[in-house]
Amino acid sequence: GSRMRPTRSDHDRVTDCLAQVDLADMETRSLSTLSGGQVQRVLLARALAQEADVLLLDEALSGVDVRHTGELISLFTQLCARGTSVLVSTHDLSLVRSHFARCLTINTRIIGDGLPAVELDGSRLEAVFSRTTTPGRA
What we know:
CATH class of the domain at 8-100: Alpha Beta
Distance between the termini: 50 Å
CATH superfamily of the domain at 8-100: P-loop containing nucleotide triphosphate hydrolases
Strand content: 5-15%
Order of helices and strands: HHEHEHEEHH
Structural class: alpha+beta
CATH topology of the domain at 8-100: Rossmann fold
Strand order of the largest sheet: 1-2
Largest sheet: 2 strands, parallel
């Protein structure tokens, strides 16, 4: 059968998404030549190009340098302001405390949902990182 070829609009969207993650100058490079942090940013650009209403990003900031981490967090904030839901999983608790307005803590199920200062206190973290969850918590 015939394959759909990317349109000019598709190419423009990809170029724009790469620019949003500061990789416009690497558009023609092979993924195998990029650093781990750059690959993370390419994967984020791919997600952005889909123009989804919800982004579920698993460890999307892992391996990304400090400068680009800040820029990506700003991008997440802009996306949220435009109506996109952005859920970022991370084990970097200091990043959550300093940059995110809401925090879900999970250990096989949701332990807590609220402000990082509340959800990341000692007793909640103990429940999150223990093998069993606190009874009665939803």
